[in-house]
Every structure is written in C-alpha cells, then in structure tokens.
C-alpha cells in the first residue's frame, strides 16, 4: 500500500489517498482546537496518543460486532481505514449531563440521564454544528430513515460496550460523538474515538480526563489522555 496525496485536512486529522481507491490513510496530528477553531494549540504527542487510543477502541467495537472503517495501525500517527461515503450528521449519546446540553437546557452538570439521550447535529462549521432531528435529516436527504435507525442502534451498542469498558477501569463515560458512513450498502462507524470526542470522568473524584481539560484550560491534557489509555491497558511509545 502506497500513501499518495492529501485529500482533506480537518482540524486534528488529515486524510490521504492511497494506491487502493477503497482505502485511505488517516493521519492524527498534534493540532488541537476547540470552540470551532477559535482556540488552537499544538500538543506534543497528541497525534500518537489519539491514533493508538482510537485503534484500541475501534478493535474493541469491531470485536463486539460494530462495523468500523478501521483496518490497522500503519505508524505511531497513521492508520489505514476503509473509504466511506460520510453522512454529514453527528450522533451524540449522553449518560450524564455536561457541555452543550447544560447550556441549552439550563441544567446542572453531572445529572444521570436514564435512559441515555441521543442527539443529532449537522456537521457544518460555519453554522457551528446546529442540532437537528431525524425529520430534518430525512427531508434534506442527509440520510434515510433506515440509515438513521441503524446509526442510532449502533450508537447505543457502542455505549453498552464502552460504558462497561471505562467503568471496569474506574472511569465514567459521560458522553461522546460518533460519525458514520456508507460502505457496500452497510452503515459503518467512521472518524475516530479518542478523548478529543468524548467526555470521561474519574468515577470517584469526577476529575475531567478528556478534551474539556483543553477547552477549560485545566492543564496536563495529554498526560491525562495517556492516563486514561493506561487504565484501559493501552501501551504508548
Ligand atoms: O458540546 P457537546 O456537549 O454537545 O458535546 C457532546 C460530546 O460530543 C462531547 O464529548 C464532545 O467532545 C463531542 N463532540 C465532538 N465534536 C463535535 C461536537 C461534540 O467530538 N463537533
């Protein structure tokens, strides 16, 4: 497999073509951004940590029967993935209230949400990823009703797998965002799962162990990501 030209550079990852039209290389960079790119920094080792973290989680999900685009690690900061036709809608599940939910509804952080909530957001930086719903997604042909039902089913399946994985390691999976795409008529999990796209708290102390450390200027961002990984049994370089 040969890495070819860059196809797309996102805020923290880049996608490269390969000599195989059905496979891309995902490069995890050290760039870190929050608040729609308003706050930006380079955090040493983040690309490596998130690449390994994502590989570990994707393998766990695949083993539990969730189809993912992940095919394997290529280097400390690169992974091989299947090409997907991406659906421009983000799926967010929340087990505990935090972040935009608290701002939107005026509720306090840390409330248990039972059953966990499921929200959809349109991927659109200029509009700051507005919240949407299934009716809008179908009417605007972002996805079919069947595709949305599958995305919801898989998003909750991911919650079952990961909630217990984090719980066993002394952590609480507060919320997370997933993105899906189409491949060979199937709905497949794409993008990444890392502490950049979820909230994780220590179960006892409720210490924040995710990107809120960067958003809120709490410090030790990558050291804490590595601690999350180590508790899960991930080996970093
Ligand atoms: O900001 P909000 O509270 O809606 O985020 C919910 C979860 O989804 C958080 O874990 C956040 O990190 C993640 N998220 C993300 N990318 C976005 C929006 C949210 O990773 N564009």
TrEMBL record:
GO BP terms, alphabetized: 'de novo' IMP biosynthetic process; cobalamin biosynthetic process
Organism lineage: Bacteria, Pseudomonadati, Pseudomonadota, Gammaproteobacteria, Pseudomonadales
Domain SAICAR synthetase/ADE2 N-terminal per the UniProt entry, residue ranges: 7-231
Recorded name of the encoding gene: purC
Superkingdom of origin organism: Bacteria
Pathway connected to this protein: Purine metabolism; IMP biosynthesis via de novo pathway; 5-amino-1-(5-phospho-D-ribosyl)imidazole-4-carboxamide from 5-amino-1-(5-phospho-D-ribosyl)imidazole-4-carboxylate: step 1/2
S-adenosyl-L-methionine listed as a keyword: no
Catalytic activity: 5-amino-1-(5-phospho-D-ribosyl)imidazole-4-carboxylate + L-aspartate + ATP = (2S)-2-[5-amino-1-(5-phospho-beta-D-ribosyl)imidazole-4-carboxamido]succinate + ADP + phosphate + 2 H(+)
Family: Belongs to the SAICAR synthetase family.
Catalytic activity, EC: 6.3.2.6
Xref: SUPFAM superfamilies: SAICAR synthase-like
A Pfam family this chain is assigned to: SAICAR_synt
Keyword vocabulary terms for this entry: ATP-binding, Ligase, Nucleotide-binding, Purine biosynthesis
UniProt-recorded name of the protein: Phosphoribosylaminoimidazole-succinocarboxamide synthase
UniProt-listed HAMAP family: SAICAR_synth (MF_00137)
GO cellular component: cytosol
